[in-house]
Structures
1.
Amino acid sequence: MEIKTNDYRVWVDGSTIHYEGTMRLSSPEDYAPIQALMKQVLEANEGRIDLDLMGLEFLNSSGINLFAKFTIEVRNRGGVGLGVCGTARIPWHAKSLPNLKKLFPALDLQIL
Amino acid sequence: MKASFGTQRPDLTAPGHWSSRLVLHGSLPVVWAHCGATAELLGELYSGQAVRAGKDANEAHHGINYLTNELLENAVKFRHATADSIELDASFTDGVFEIRVRNHAAEGVAVRFGQLLEQLTASDPNELLLERIEANAVGASPSASGLGILTLMSDYGAEFTWQFEQPDAAAPVMIQTHASLRL
């Protein structure tokens, strides 16, 4: 599974979803294909899902909301682990990803 | 209509206070792309000044880029159908990046935005951000739930002042957003 544009790329490798590039989509509706891909991965995995954000340089607030909603969906489902990996090189990771852990304390957050 | 919200600021109209001025207009796809390009441009321009003031280049570039992009995206989303130009002024002084965005909105849009701002400025932004995210996830929050503004307040420490002015009842409402970000 892959979504690719001139600005960003999202692809799945096993139970890991990788993101790279710049996401400045204009509304939650524009993020719907990515949301659908994430949901497919959630439906297909009962153990743990990992979100690799190491290459995601920029994400606007609609995009941050996408990850927050997914985190809540995993939390509410129960029994599925969630890992999120970011990098200290990209400032928004350290600023905003900790909010995901506040929403779901069992989330495994790594800022490398 | 005349109203203001957020931290009240001294007069920012003094000559020379702003060092950049840009005007955006055009169709939605064009002006949306210009939001990102403008944010990148200001990030490059002012992070250079910030570095000369001893600030971290990467942090400064990202903070300016994120703040500018969010304010411009909001202005585009809620701009008036005919009075659709968006004006932007920016400056960097004493370690603080400031930006002022002006757009026009229909009266109903402005009233709803003002109600939202009353809520956003009356609570702790860290707590309200998580509350709004939870409400959004179950569809209990309107689409204009202020998550971008709350993220800027909570995660970036940005401070805001909004001023609304409507010269007469038939005219669109001018919304001026002033934000400051200590780098």
2.
Amino acid sequence: MGNEEENGLPLYQVELEAIEQGIRDFEEGRRENIALISEPFAGRKKLINEIRKSHAEKITSIRFNSTITSNDFLSSLREGKEVVIVENCHFLARRKIGGFDQIDAFLNYMSSSHQLFITSWNTFSWSYLSAVMSVNAFFPRVVRLYPLGAEALKSLILSSYPYAIRFSENGERAADRITVSMACLHLRLPFSSTVHCIPWPEIRLPQLLKGRRKVKAEDAFFDRLASISGGNPGVARKLFEQALTFPEVPLSALKEPKYTISLGINDRFLLSLILTMELVSKDDLAEIAGPDIDVDKSLYLLSAAGLVTVEEATYGIAHEALKSVVQYLELSRVVW
Amino acid sequence: MADLLPNVSDPLAALTFQEIGFSTLLHVAYIIIVAYITVFVSSFLLRKLSERLPTYRHTVTMLIPLVKIFVYFLAFYYIIITFIQPNLTQLVAFFGLFGAALGLGLKDLFADVIGGIVIIFEKPYQIGDKITIGECYGEVTDIGIRSTKLVTPGDSVVSVPNYLVFSQSVSSANAGNVAMMVIIDLFIDSRCDAGLAMKILKEAIISSKHIIVTEKFPYTILLDDFPFYHRIRAKAYVGDLRNEFEFKSEVTRRAWIEFRKHGIRPPRMRDAIPVKETLSSLPP
């Protein structure tokens, strides 16, 4: 995710505070390594940048941008300060024989180190690695970036525009729709360092049911945006930009992307690799997939279906397709 | 008993049979065709729906035999009342005698039908399960009124009479779940590094495109030592039981490629033959 995309992503206050608390506990002698977990495009990087800025003097930072094939990174960790941020740890594992050596080495180093590790992971990669090699056991403090509700998305997106944006119904009456989007109630259970999200629905009833109070076009727009984007701020922002016709956003311009996904096992597997690694080069994909899978053909199919985007031979999930891809792969039991 | 008989026979004696003409036969044919089409269409739709809901595939497909039994019984009822127009007492008496006739003359068929009903409600297996019944192993593709159809790994379709559920033990490898445990055994020379072989097999398993690993579906790698070889056994769940053999084959092939790279060999046959036998079998 580039810096341009990072602008306007939310600063999750509850999650930020959970990480800050972890650092304070470490300073008081309680070391609990932290895992920051989220879907692609959810804004992990911004949160990490905020931590890095506020504790610059005691933090060493490493960021992985592609798959790691040697243990050279360990020397940077050894020479690091007392708090080490390791971003995109999912790049430490490649789903192939011999592809888990780096993550093994990292976990071994981490277990014997006295440093505090703040790590960030793709949520699907985290689930996979937790299932197959119990990565979660090494991180007592798990901070998840949960989907945002309509209100949060509205304040987030509108705050990033310096000018007023007009929302028009444009033939579509906002008041006629019942909209439901999921919001998050943060809860920390006793004796647990992890902040949990209790999902609860934000329901907006049509004008008829609500009496005289009129549902604003703006609210209707963000309700629908939250529902279509699955509460993912990066996806929501992308969809908003697509709907924006400066300085107006017509309600009808927000369309739910429809994908009919029907893939063979090899294409499905490749799609899951792209989802779990977020940005991955064709060479890395070919190496992981092995000779069984015709990577060129599969990538062509995935690109043609609009599920993945390619930039300089690096593949990522298309923002608009994220929700559909996740639903499809979860139903197919390829991601858990 | 003597008092009861006239009560049963009287209503039957009072049954009024319809005249069987061309229109009656046409009506019966119409009922059969409608029943057949209903079963065919609903089975087709339910199968399509089950493919769209992989997690609930078996639950949806188990509705197919239920629909079949319901529709065919309904059709049977309508055919009966086409020929005779009984009141409730007559109907009960008719079905009593009809059941007795079935029991005596067509007892195997009747046992199959009852077996089918038991299979639907007790669920010793479901459509989509991989089962072993008698000497047959395969995927259940259909549970009919009379028999259950299995497709064997060799792609042969086997019809197993439903009454076998009463007399034979049935083993279901997945018991209604889409995931299924697969056991993969690899045998290596006892002088090779078994620890390394276990690590390779573990990574071959967890990196497979077919696997599912959750708390409910864990995986295990086991080592067993035999006099002339080690057995490395992997137990893991394939996400979709239809990929059982692909999963086995993929993991075995990838593991052996990696074994060879690290000098891990299969056991040699001559090690397994006692020295005396080897010597005596040699030509003079």
3.
Amino acid sequence: MSRRDDTGLVCVGLVKSYSGVTVLKSVDFGVRPGTVVGLIGENGAGKSTLSSVITGVVRPDSGEMTLDGRHYAPSTPSEALREGVVLIHQEIRLLPDLSVAENIFLGRLPHRRGRVDRDQMRRDAEEVLSSLGVAIDPRRLVRGLSMAMQQEIEIAKALSRQPRYVVFDEPSASLGETETEHVLDRIRALRERGVGVVYISHRLDEVRTVSDEIVCLRDGARVADWSEAGVAKESLVNAMVGREFTYEHVPPKPSRDEVVLEVRGLGRRGAFADISFSVAAGEVLGIAGLVGAGRTEVVRAIAGVDRPDAGEVIVEGARLPTSGPRAAIRAGVVMVPEDRKGQGLNLDRSASANLTLPWERELATGGVVTQRLLRRVGDEQRARLDIRGDMSLPVQSMSGGNQQKVLIGKWLIKDPKVLIVDEPTRGVDVGAKMAIYEIIRTLAEQGMAVIVVSSELEEVLGLSHRVLVMSGGRQRGILSRFEATPQRVMELAVASDRPETPTLGSTTDSPTAATTAGR
Amino acid sequence: MATTNRTGSESTARQRPTSPTARPSEAVAGQDRRVLAVALRAFRAMPGPLLGLIVVVVVLSFLSPYFFTQRNLTNIVSQNADIGIMAVGAALVILIGGIDLSVGSTLALSLMSSAWLFRQHGLPFTVCVVAGLVIGALVGLVNGVLSTYGRIQPFVATLATMSACAGLALYLTDGNPINGFPGWYLALTSNSVAGIPLQAIILVAVYLVAAFWLNFRPSGRALYAVGGNAEVARLSGLNVTRIKIAVYVFAGLLAALAGVIVGSRLDSAQPTAGTADLLNVIAVVVIGGASLSGGSGGMLNTFIGLLIIGVLNNGMSLLNVSPNLQPVVIGIAIIVAVLTDRGSRSRFLA
């Protein structure tokens, strides 16, 4: 969008990079008062970064913004707020032990003679809530309210500041169909009042119905926009994924026949339901889906980290006990978790000590773990996975790629039957990325059953024999390598339940969701 | 813990040594610069607590002629045996990111239980001692279960057991001490082997066993993993709950063992014994460089922390510093230890 006129929030040539990676590449963007602009794009396309720049959460490296013709460069969210620009977050961030009214006016409680003016606060809260059509006592605590109600309060909180521009960052991610409809109604009401709205969502149907204009980002650049009504969903999908693949296709060797892992009707209330698939020896199964589709939750349940409440996991014919990670590891099912720092590695300990951690009982000779043993194991894995760095130093001292190799190596010390890798290359540089792909391929060729979960579409498609696509906690289909075009995967990934199907997400309201079959 | 007021058969530090010891300053004279540089580098590589200990020892050696004598030094170790043994348990608990406030009261309860069983029920004294150790372990078990299955923060859970144990210890005899134990029991703290007091040997043995366990046994090494990041440990297949409970049980058992030594040393079971030791015990662990957020610390450093506390208290008594001022110095030592430790750590990571 160029500077056609001065009204509205206008961004020109925004650039932002994080540690060498450019996530916004000279993006132009604008929203006029009284309009809704839908912002779509794949995971990591730069949507959230753009909304963070607009609302002062991060500062752009270069580029300019104007607000109704005036220079606008917020350096903090509160500065943006003063200019009338608010962000409504993806996650709900209310304080459960404060009242609804206190949450709405947090940080600016009305006061009189040095004391909080509770009557004033209640009246103001009632006013903004009733303008939204929300019937709730502003004096009650937030704790125990449904997700949908909490989302309404988030919106009320934003609106109580009388904003002129509102950015919704995936407000429907945790909401069901009917609750989402409420949110869309709010957005329409805001538009009536002359507010400019930016609406970010993975749910293309919602974006299509509510937006006056749709902008698509891909790899940090604006690649397409539509301002006419009734845009075909296919053209949105194509714009989101329509890029050349940047990795070289190395077709994986065909897998063998014997099934190693079988998952039957696995479900966990509030997270996912009715997941069934199998993985053969030597096969790589990819799990694709947009953020919040339930991919990580599924593999965590398989690896025994979370306890599923429906279905079963069968490894080489034997049912996997659900008593915890230990049982799964014993049965040969291991997982490289997505959160390397929080769940994968002990950063203060040496790389060698991290490698041996799950296996010390088995490795110890005469019940003793010696420095020599640690050095031997460390050297073995360093040679096998080409880890660069001193294995006796805290693993913190290594680069992200080498840390990830250590984390993978930790699970290869006793050859597992099933290797699950969640986000294999998150926070890893390009060189190490290729090395990790190579490791995964080699392991599969050696007969391991591998599951790869990734938010990067090309990563899943490039590595896998078959791709399971999820959305909204449901399995939407399993595509063979040849069927799995980016367009086909994205179509399944943005699929949503029909209204008659109970929605997941709203965990507190629909206990039956987990047991109902998806389609 | 003041080093004075200790009764027992040992000679106190006040007895004057007859042989003059070599002055440390003589050695430095006439050394050339290169040796000094090497020494300086070794100095830098040294762990902070050890450095602190050396500084304190050197300074006190100059300030008091009685300080740097073999008798005084062995006294320091044996007089702090009870605190030192409790500190092993406390260090393990702190290593896994917990805290045990009940150590002192556990000592009192287990000691009083042993004495009470011996006096009131006439059980053989060996049986009574074992029963006391079991009671200590049981208190630890309660702490462990409350802070894992009960999901009560360890600070709160052990605060509760601290109060309960202190009360029970008093209740058993209505607050009265019990005196008069078998001779072999008293010998535990009055005898020496090859010139080294038996209680010092017990103390060092406990540290060696704990150090070996922590560094070489899979179950001991697991404590670092649990303290460093419990979720990583769980996902690696460790039974975090069981490990945590076991550590609290060890801490209770060691507190009871410390009680055995205190009873022997005083030839009396006092219902309030040990209850004043809690802060000293935690100070030992913290001065030894452990972080209360868990994942760091070790037995060597804890032992050095014990020596620093012991040497400081002993030195201040020798120098006739008012007993009321001694805790102030310990407080300063804690702050200095933590500040210098942070400095060395950031240097390492840079």
